[in-house]
Amino acid sequence: MVNYRYLGNSGLKISEITYGNWLTHGSQVENDVAAQCVRAALDAGITTFDTADVYANTAAEQVLGDALKGQRRESLEIFTKVYWPTGPKGPNDTGLSRKHVMESINGSLQRLGTDYVDLYQAHRYDVETPLEETMQAFADIVRQGKALYIGVSEWTADQIRAGAELAKDLGFQLISSQPQYSMLWRVIEDEVVPTSRELGLSQIVWSPMAQGVLSGKYVPGKELPAGSRATDAKGGAQMIERFMRDEVLERVQRLKPVADELDLSMAQLAVAWVLQNDNVAAALVGASRPEQVAENVKASGVTIPAELLATIDDVLGDVVERDPGKTLEGMPKTRVA
């Protein structure tokens, strides 16, 4: 069964393995299989579910809401996000303007079939909306009881600091950051993590398996596995491309003895590794089959000894991306239409 951790400097506990439905519900996975995966998550003790309005252009929220029907709402932590274009993608169907934020929370609640979400997250930083406008909208949503807590996703350390200061002035607190983080992608460690510790935020990390590369299923010189992320023309292949160099894949294969020593699969090792960072509250893990959920949960509660953590660093060496500037580099420079 999964363990639980506090989210940021709040009293909210979440499951350290959190079920996320990006790239699965409403697109890659049929709705009945998605419901089976959610039931498997609940059976494994996962209480925290993360989605976003943009996933499958709102369909993922609907699928998750349907799958959670009949569950005791107070026993769940439901997270969603706002920023990216949704619906017909009109001029105000994107960004973090007050108009889009206020309308988006209402749409998300309707699709999820709930009166409130436990965490509402700014899916990216909006360079074209005053931060004061965005944070005031979040403050009002909290006061209205439509969201209990507020977080951000893929914000830089400076942006987190500015947002946290405004939130405090407005009477609420930012409690979480949702960045990409894995053995291969450590860009948050030098700036975002120390800033978050100082300000009382913790990380809910996505892609702990580096889009599946750290599972070891991609072997240099061999054909890509059928149906894998690397063969997904809908977007998965583009996301995983940065990790598909032979140099990276060869180093990943050399992690297998470490996983074997801990009696873990390589995928479980990848999830357990991100959870060794004490600023990480949860690892986001999706599933296309119910049995994957039970396997992922085995990473919960694992302690990787310091000597094996050092071995992992030695094996991966210079293929690890550590540049904190990558967060800003990957951020939209203008509002996405």
TrEMBL record:
Gene3D superfamilies: NADP-dependent oxidoreductase domain
Classification via CDD domains: Aldo_ket_red_shaker-like
Record key words, sorted: NADP, Oxidoreductase
Pfam families cross-referenced by the UniProt entry: Aldo_ket_red
Superkingdom per UniProt: Bacteria
Domain NADP-dependent oxidoreductase: 16-315
Alphabetical list of InterPro entries matching this protein: K_chnl_volt-dep_bsu_KCNAB-rel, NAD(P)_OxRdtase_dom_sf, NADP_OxRdtase_dom
EC number(s) stated in the UniProt entry for this protein: 1.1.1.-
GO molecular function terms listed in the Swiss-Prot or TrEMBL record: oxidoreductase activity
Family as reported in the entry's similarity comment: Belongs to the shaker potassium channel beta subunit family.
The name this protein goes by in its record: L-glyceraldehyde 3-phosphate reductase
Native source organism of the sequence: Isoptericola dokdonensis DS-3
